[in-house]
Here is the input.
Amino acid sequence: MNGSNGVITIHISGHTNHFSHGPQDMLEWVRDNAPGSFGLIYTMDDEHPSQDNEFRVFRLAKNKIDEFKDELLSPYVGTIE
Here is the structure.
């Protein structure tokens, strides 16, 4: 966490060997402890059969967490690789 111009910012990155609910849990923690926060987390679960070649986006806005199919980086094979 760091602050700039009076705004606290959290930067998170990581690569796990197996998918976990860490990103969703982190957004829930931020939502519950820092009202008014907003942000995005991109995930890719190459072990999930229906999400094998796509990113998912978790959005925190207006104290609500939503999940979306990514349309900017997906499909992974074809767009990135």
In short: DSSP finds two helices and five strands in the chain. The mean pLDDT is 82. The longest strand covers residues 56-61.
